[in-house]
Amino acid sequence: MSADTGDADAPRRATVRTEHDDPALVAASVRPDNTDSMRTEVADGAVVTTIERDDTGGLRATTDDYVVNVTVAEELAQLAERHTTRNQ
């Protein structure tokens, strides 16, 4: 994760990059929870989410929520893969 904390009046920005077996599925799973201040894409085989907020506290809270969401999405993707593999 990287954070930009330059000018005190500028928006705060964090970029979270996570690698997954199926990054497109994980990205599609978290996008519905994105706020207007978030952008999620798949780049170079990873899920990359950029979060921009006006203050550090808001950035921290939004990033924390996102990390929980992406963790759950990954766990569900793994569970679905195991279930699909067993039923073939």
Describe the structure concisely for a colleague.
44% of the residues lie in helices and 28% in strands. The chain has helices at residues 23-30, 56-86, and strands at residues 2-4, 12-19, 38-43, 46-53. The longest helix has 31 residues, at 56-86.
Explain this structure.
With 88 residues, the chain is of the alpha+beta class. It has a single domain, classed as 2-Layer Sandwich (TATA-Binding Protein). The chain is built from 2 helices and 4 strands. β1 (2-4) and β2 form a beta hairpin. The protein starts with a strand and ends with a helix. The model has no long low-confidence stretch (mean pLDDT 91).
Span between termini: 38 Å
DSSP summary, beta strand count: 4
Give helix and strand order, one letter per element, not per position: EEHEEH
Helicity, as a percent range? 40-55%
Low-confidence segments, given as residue ranges, are none
**Top CATH class:** Alpha Beta
| Oligomer type | single chain
- CATH architectural group: 2-Layer Sandwich
Main β-sheet description: 4 strands, antiparallel
C-alpha geometry = elongated
Mean pLDDT: 91
Task: Sum up the structure in keywords.
88 residues, alpha+beta, TATA-Binding Protein, 4-stranded antiparallel β-sheet, 2 helices, 44% helix
Topology:
Blueprint: E1 2-4, E2 12-19, H1 23-30, E3 38-43, E4 46-53, H2 56-86
Antiparallel strand pairs: 1-2, 2-4, 3-4
Helix pairs in contact: 1-2
